[in-house]
Amino acid sequence: MTFEIVRGLHILAVIAWMAGMLFLPRLYAYDAEQAGKAEPLRGEMQALLRLWQTRLLRIIVNPAMIVAFIFGGWLLWLRSGEGADWSVLHQPWMVAKLAGVAALSAWHGFLAGERRKIAAGTSTRSGKFWRMTNEIPFVIAIVMVLSVTTEWTFG
Questions:
Q1: By CB distance 3.0 to 4.6 Å, which of 74, 84, 120, 127 could disulfide with 33?
Q2: In this predicted model, what pLDDT tens digit does every residue of 4-47 receive, in sequence order?
Q3: To the nearest whole percent, how much of the chain has pLDDT over 70?
Q4: Spatial separation of the C-alpha atoms in residues 33 and 16, rounded to whole Å
Q5: What global pTM score does this model have?
Q6: For the segment 119-132, what is each residue's pLDDT rounded down to a tens digit?
Q7: Quick one: which of 4, 47, 49 has its CA closest to 25?
Q8: At CA 14, angle to CA 18 and CA 132, rounded to 5?
Q9: Whole-angstrom Cα distance, residue 93 to residue 39?
Q10: Distances (CA, A) of 136 to 25, 28, 84, 142, 145
C-alpha cells in the first residue's frame, strides 16, 4: 500500500513539474517577441511576462521538481526492498529512466539560467528558438514513462 501511495504522489509531482516545464518556454517565446513592439505596451507586457516566469519557476516548477525527487527516491528505496537490493538500478529500463531524470533536470537548469538572462535583458534566444525547443520535456517524458511502465530489458 505504501508503494502505491508514494507512486501516486510521485506522479502528481511529476505532472506539476512537467506542466511548468512545458509552459515556461512559451512564456519565454512571448517575452522574446516583445522586442519588435512599440515601447509603451512592450515594457508593460515584458514586466508581466517576467513576473509570470519568475512565479512559475519559483512557486510551481522548482518545488514540484524537489517533491518529485523526494518521492522518486522513496520509490527507489521501496523498490530495492528498503535498501536491501539495489540491483534494480542496473536494469536497462531504470537506466533509461534515470538518464531521463538527468536530462530533464539539465533542461530545468537551462530554463532557470535563461530566466535570469531574460530578467537581466541579456538573453539572445528568439521566440522561434523557444517554440522549437518547447516539447523537449515531453519527448524526455515519453522515454521515461514507457521505460517505467514496460520495464523493458535486453534479451
A1: 127
A2: 999 999 999 999 999 999 999 999 999 999 877 777 777 889 99
A3: 100
A4: 26
A5: 0.91
A6: 999 999 999 999 99
A7: 49
A8: 20
A9: 51
A10: 10, 15, 35, 10, 14
Cell numbers found for residue 39: 515601447
Helix, strand or coil, per DSSP, at residue 83 = coil
3-state secondary structure of 36: helix
Q: What's the CA gap between 12 and 3, in Å, rounded?
A: 14
Confidence of residue 143 (pLDDT cuts 50, 70, 90): very high
Place of cell 538573453: 123
**CA neighbor of 7 nearest in space, from 96, 91, 74, 52:** 74
Type of residue numbered 59: I
| Alpha-carbon separation of residue 33 from 22, 120, 138 (angstroms) | 18, 16, 23
What are the helix (H) ranges across the chain?
Answer: 2-32, 39-55, 62-79, 92-120, 127-133, 136-150
- Is the separation of the CB atoms in 148 and 98 below 8 Å? no
Burial 99-127 (b: 16+ CB within 10 A, else e): ebbebbeebbeebeebbeebeeeebebeb
